[in-house]
Amino acid sequence: MAKAVKAVKFSAVLDSSDNGSGWHFVRVSREIGERFPATDGKSRRVVCTLNGKEQFQCALMPSGGEFYIMVNKEIRTRLKIYSGNSVDVALKLDDSKYGMAMPEELQEVMRQDPEGNKLFHALTPGKQRSLIWQVGKGKDVDLRIHRALIIMEHLKDNDGKVDGEKLYHEMKRPLF
What are the boundaries of each domain within the chain? Predict the structure, then answer.
């Protein structure tokens, strides 16, 4: 494995899947991808900046001897980039605790709920990121608090496990 680096820049083409899923991604060579160590034993977490404007935390996903970075529709729309366009990519090691920003609302709910906090931190890093994302995608403070409370109750009601379908239905409950 190559020596770990703090940052690297390169140009790549925004590609899309052939299977009709709508996934868009940027390929990262094996040589570049392996410069970033697996932080939790598996995931290579990086902060990606596209075209010097749009920065986001993500994983280098392995595939066929190389890596790729998923680029969601919101980012593509803001940058006005389409499949086949060349993009400038800057990657740096993501040394954050969770691999994404922790919403203040979830942090506060966990501070007030030691049992829920303990159950949350017993989850795998990937499950933690998934729950953080669920809370963070809420459009306003009330919705983020609501989701954080539901997640803590869900973990306590399910012996620290995440039942995806059940949690989905619980998230649909009205705010008040």
Answer: 7-93, 104-171
Residue type, 114: P
pLDDT, tens digit, 9 for 90 and up, residues 75-89: 999 999 999 999 999
Q: In what order do the strands lie in the sheet with 45-50?
A: 54-59, 45-50, 86-93, 7-16, 24-28, 66-70, 61-63
Task: Work out the mean pLDDT of the chain and round it to a whole number.
Answer: 91
Using a 10 angstrom Cβ sphere, with 0-12 exposed, 13-18 middle and 19 or more buried, the burial of residue 49 is middle
- Give the pairing of strands 61-63 and 7-16: unpaired
The alpha-helical segments, DSSP class H, found in the chain are 30-33, 73-79, 104-112, 114-122, 125-136, 141-157, 164-171
**Structure token pair of residue 24:** 């868009």
**CA 111/CA 70 separation, integer angstroms:** 32
**CATH number of the domain at 7-93, please?**
2.40.30.100
**In sequence order, which residues have a C-beta less than 8 Å from that of residue 89 and are 6 or more positions away?**
9, 10, 11, 12, 26, 28, 48, 49, 50, 69
pTM (global) more than 0.85:
no
